[in-house]
Amino acid sequence: MKLLIPLSLILFFIFPSQSYGQDTWPKEIPLSTGGKVVIYQPQVEGFEGNILHTRSAVSVRQQAKDEPVFGAVWADAQMLTDKDTRMATLESIDITDVRFPNIEDQSKIDAFEKLLETEIPKWNLEISIDRIIASLESQGKIEDSDLNTTPPKIIYRKEPSTLVLIDGEPKIEKNDDLNMETVVNTPFFIVKNPDDKKFYLFGGDFWYVSGSVTSGWQPAGSLSGTMKELDKALQEQIAENQEGEKEPAPASPPAIVVSTEPAELIQSEGEADFQSIEGTSLLYMSNTTNDILMDISSQTYYVLLAGRWYNSKSLNGPWSYSAPDKLPADFSKIPKGSEKDVVLANVAGTPEARDATMEAQIPQTAKVDRNSTSCTVEYDGKPKFEPIEGTSLQVAVNTSSTVLRANNKYYAVENGVWFVSNNAEGPWKVSEERPSEVEKIPASSPAYNTKYVYIYDVTPTYIYTGYTPGYLGCYVYGPTVVYGTGYYYRPWYGAYYYPRPVTWGFGMHYNPWTGWSMNFGVSVGFFSFSFGHGGYYGRPGGWWGPPMYRPPYRPPYYGGGGYYGGRRNNININGDVNINVGNNTNNLYRYRNDAVTRDRASTANRTGSSRDRANQNGNISRDRTQNTTRDRTQNTTRDRAGNAGVNTSDLSNRMQNKPTARPADRSKNNVYTDKKGDVYRRQNNGNWQQKSSNGWNKSSVTPSTRQNLNRQSEMRNRGTTRTNSYQRTQSRPASRPAPSGRRRGN
């Protein structure tokens, strides 16, 4: 076996996100007549693939001096997302319905309708992804029901420790570039010193030494000879890639715990110290970075690992799985803003859990140039395939890429894009479709995450594609989200070593703004990883799935809490992925020269195509019953048979460079419409007014309508809170470019 590429070090520090788009509502569209259209924040009714279905309250002034006329507009829009900025651009807007309930003159209704149909699609509307998540009215059926919840080996330590995960028994091979032997089946950097024949583990500020890879690690102290030269080279590389302040090293080296099987390390600094959680019968361990709680009434410990709860009567185990809807009732009473509010996303029935499951269904979208985009698949020898249980598909096992064989064709997924070829070794071109059985791939297959990469639309020039967080390992399991499938996937050992996606060993934890991050323990922040055997500088690493994906690392000694309560902590969060030092992004498509996200460039000559819905992600359903059956005697209903809001022949005209609607001046974001198209305004005291031909009057709505309006208002306020809270956690220094000459183009 040989190493795939030269040594490179990737540091897991957190880098700040990019600047934000304009997310102030309502939006204003100026008219050439001097008037304007004001669009209030969309009330999301659902989405299918990358198409968002909304209804919005609008006001129209045809002339500047006119009084505003209020109505409701239904629209389908292509949603282009960027999870770096947590913003979505709504473009290719198709007005599917309009109602002005206070106008009786049909000619005026027709005029307003034509105006909105003409003017709104000329503009792009930007909205925060957090607002979309908070305003979704119903949840779809997307759920991963066959994930594994068997606990890994859970190791408890009372002193600062670091878990070093090795994928099975150590595989030691010669690295010609280093002229040293290295352990290839671990993301940690372990070398064998040719001078003293001992193993050395690199920890950034510390080196460890041992006669065995799996035990006996001790601080190395001063270095000499070959190791001193290697340390100098590594420190220079770290300094070159360092951005921001270096994280301080612990006062003394932590202990090293090695596992050759799936495991998680939980630890306390000394004897476990528990503090009460206000308003509950729960305690939380305060001297740890793990999420460890105790239910006082049952004297049971609960630990949250990769989104899964495990319980035990002892911190030393044994541990058993606890379903998120079977936890003690007080879990859902953990106060927002408290030290452990972050666990609310993994407690069934909480708004935070709902938001997390919704987030898991929002895609990261892009368009890729079908004529220039390609991929390269390398095999360790001739391609070898194995069947995928429950399907007629086969998956290649001797490559770091994900390659499927289906119906005498070959499909590869690389960084969120599907490719197809008539030969397992290429050449490859962007695919217009996915294998028909991709949805049947079980979680026990390492190809499972490919079912979350979608093809939304096809034109002669572009493929419109996207992936949901499942591609990065975030799955909806029952009422909450988890990380990883929980299964162990056998790696490939040959001339090369190819790791497979893992669930355990890296302390994966969820936060509401940016998804999953790593947390190894109280003192691992100074550690550096080597991806020399399959990482950014070479072929895909595979430890976390997609080739370019590296979850961010949460620094130790974090302040904790305050995620939902708006209290800023000292964690600098960096989104769904932290791919490489100096390359701040949580969007895999940014690492493709052939892909564009939230792009407003022309896609002229776009032709309509009828995309198979099997190539789209599951739908968050919308209740349109009241829309389609309500009385339309005073409003026109247009025939939309030739325009379903997606893949239409006139879409090219609506995808030209367009301006972005600006925030409206002096307008409060407090106007709503119900499903019948009536317009309401919420007053500061919480009362509702309904718009009539005589102005705003105290509403005499039914209790059910009032309840729905209150819920809409709560969701809108929640979206604003989420957006503001996320922005407070971010700083905005410029990102550094990728290392020269090293960046992968495809």
Any overview of this molecule?
- Residues 731-740 have a biased composition (Low complexity).
- This protein is mainly β.
- Among the domains are: 27-142 and 638-728, no CATH class; 371-459, no CATH class.
- Helix content is 10%, strand content 28%.
- It contains six helices and 46 strands.
- Helix 2 runs antiparallel to helix 6.
- It is globular.
- The two termini are 26 Å apart.
> What is the share of helical residues?
10-25%
Distance between the termini: 26 Å
Shape: globular
Number of helices: 6
Structural class: mainly beta
* Radius of gyration, in angstroms, nearest whole number: 27 Å
Biggest sheet record: 8 strands, antiparallel
Indicate the mean pLDDT: 79
Low-confidence stretches: 1-21, 521-526, 528-540, 555-560, 566-584, 599-656, 731-746
Amount of beta strand: 25-35%
- Counted beta strands: 46
Biased composition (Low complexity): 731-740
Biased composition (Polar residues): 645-659, 682-730
Signal peptide: 1-21
Keywords: Signal
